[in-house]
Design a protein that fits this description.
The structure holds two protein chains of two kinds. Helix content of chain A is 34%, strand content 25%. By secondary structure, chain A is α/β, with parallel strands linked by helices. Classes of the chains: A alpha/beta, B mainly alpha.
Chain lengths: 258, 298
């Protein structure tokens, strides 16, 4: 399987993926690929299997014994379940959760934790990482004078940017955001959206969102999940201008349900 | 639901309202009375102990040996013995209990083995202390051949306190939100790294609180040490963990019931000392919990 020369090899490639919780199928995904340096939006109502998908990509399913994953997800060309070292896989994928999680460590340690755990010791190198990641997450100016205060006591919007900085701390190839704006005010949301547009130059982003308009603003391509199926997948502009295969996509986008 | 109330005003109390109000006051009174009844024994015990045993307590009492066939003198070897026993019991029960709690909270899947372990812990907590004592005799004194010794007695105490250490530790670990663990795992941290850097630092105060409460309970136990390592009377201090030792709780029992001619104040003094140790320990744990709360990190 050699990719056509015009298209770069996908970052994430899914084939016949099926995620089950017990007997209940949460997601059935025949084919999906995410290409480098795009923002890939996933929209759809709650319970459509979007979060399960993210968990399967970075193998967080290992922590959920009720979750059963079949089929293949390739990350950088390799099936994620054949990565011998899941920790190195996870280090290459940053994750941002719906609710901001400032770890009960200092702001500095929040960002420096992961690099430290994977062996970075030099103080100057850690300083560089912390400053770079906080700058990239548009948080540096607000916290540079109190790097030693607790990350878990920052405001919600700041904590969410701290989470992004943490997700960037190991120079990931892929950043996955799961409804990052659910607990964040509109102004901060716009700031983070600007950050994501910048980050797109350097890495690939999967953006799961409840806000249809957010996908429209940010995503290059958008997928619409419904009831554990991928109903629609295509260029965001096309989808939002009505070029859809399935009527339900338009209904959802226009807010007729969901 | 007829409106039988007087006055005719919309908000006037009906006869039923008045009746309910009276009943409510009555029940409140009954429950308050029960609660006061509950704290009465505590204050009575303390009052009696302080008035009758208080005068005898002094530094000299703490640091001198019993004399004249235990009818005079202090409690030094018993006090020291209790400290030895409790410390040794903690040395065994805390690492074991914390390790078990970590396994159950952070690693174990919900399967038959875990459920069996949980059942065992609950049952272990329910075993009467005299049964623990006989188990200690059978296992540590005889089978392992430790003899009646500090080692055997403290191991018996450790077995007895283990379930409480496990349960309180597990609760402290569970109080750390799962979201923290998931954030750490998702960055490629292993389970152990997550425990070491996220879970333990944020639960250690809670674990300590549990351990301190454990100390106060262990210090007062008599039955488990009676046959396994606590001595009636020893004119010298133990030289190794294979020696017997005196202990405050057993000493109190002995001078209250087994030795003729003990002046009244002596057992009251020992009882007051014992209860003071427990109260000090409990206060320490409350203080620790308050510090912990004031430094809430999330």
């Amino acid at each position: 399987m050699v990719a056509a020369p015009s298209t770069p090899p996908p970052v994430v490639e899914v084939n016949n993926l099926r995620i089950r919780y017990g007997k209940e199928v949460a997601l059935q995904l025949d084919e999906l690929s995410v290409v480098p340096n795009e923002i890939f939006g996933i929209i759809g109502p709650a319970g459509s299997g979007r979060t399960s998908f993210l968990k399967a990509v970075n193998r967080m399913d290992l922590f959920d014994r009720s979750m059963d994953v079949e089929g293949s997800i390739r990350f950088r060309g390799r099936d994620v379940r054949t990565w011998k070292n899941v920790y190195s896989l996870r280090r290459r994928i940053g994750v941002v959760f719906p609710l901001p999680v400032g770890l009960p460590l200092s702001v500095y340690d929040n960002v420096a934790l992961a690099p430290r755990l994977s062996g970075v010791r030099a103080k100057s190198e850690l300083n560089d990482i912390v400053e770079r990641c906080l700058r990239r997450a548009a948080l540096w100016d607000e916290v540079k004078d109190r790097l030693s205060s607790l990350g878990s006591l920052l405001s919600g919007g700041q904590q969410q940017r701290l989470t992004i900085a943490r997700g960037l701390s190991q120079d990931p190839d892929l950043l996955m955001l799961d409804e990052f704006s659910i607990a964040v005010d509109p102004v901060t949301t716009m700031r983070i959206e600007d950050v994501l547009k910048e980050l797109k130059q350097e890495l690939t982003i999967i953006l799961v969102t409840n806000l249809v308009q957010q996908a429209r603003r940010l995503a290059d391509r958008t997928a619409f999940f419904l009831g554990g199926r991928c109903i629609e997948i295509g260029a965001t502009d096309a989808i939002f201008s009505g070029e859809v295969k399935d009527r339900r996509t338009t209904d959802y986008i226009l807010g007729r349900f969901g | 639901m007829s409106d039988t109330g007087g006055g005719g005003s919309l908000f006037a109390a009906t006869a039923r309202d008045l009746d309910n109000r009276k009943k409510q006051a009555r029940y409140r009174g009954v429950f308050l009375g029960m609660t006061l009844l509950l704290i009465l024994p505590v204050f009575l015990i303390l009052a009696v102990l302080i008035s009758r045993g208080g005068p005898i307590l002094s530094l000299g009492f703490l640091f001198t040996y019993p004399s004249s066939g235990m009818t005079a003198g202090g409690v030094f070897p018993a006090l020291l013995g209790t400290i030895f026993l409790v410390t040794a019991a903690l040395v065994f029960s805390v690492p074991l209990g914390v390790a078990a709690a970590l396994y159950l909270s952070e690693y174990a899947a919900d399967n038959w083995l875990t459920r069996l372990i949980n059942l065992a812990i609950i049952n272990l907590a329910g075993v009467p202390s005299i049964v623990h004592a006989l188990f200690g005799v059978g296992a540590f004194v005889l089978f392992f051949g430790f003899g009646t010794s500090i080692l055997a007695a403290s191991l018996t105490l450790a077995v007895m306190t283990l379930p409480v250490v496990i349960v309180s530790t597990r609760e402290s670990l569970q109080a750390v939100p799962r979201a923290f663990r998931e954030a750490s795992w998702s960055m490629g941290a292993t389970r152990w790294q997550t425990i070491r850097h996220i879970v333990l630092p944020n639960s250690v105060s809670g674990i300590l609180t549990g351990v301190i409460l454990e100390v106060s309970r262990t210090a007062g136990e008599t039955a488990p040490i009676m046959f396994t390592g606590a001595a009636f009377f020893l004119p010298f201090l133990p030289q190794s963990v294979y020696d017997q030792t005196m202990a405050l709780s057993l000493h109190l029992f002995v001078i209250s019931t087994q030795v003729p001619g003990v002046p009244d104040a002596l057992p009251y003094g020992v009882a007051l000392l014992l209860i003071s140790i427990v109260l000090i320990m409990n206060s320490a744990s409350i203080a620790l919990r308050m510090v912990l709360r004031s430094r809430k990190k999330w």
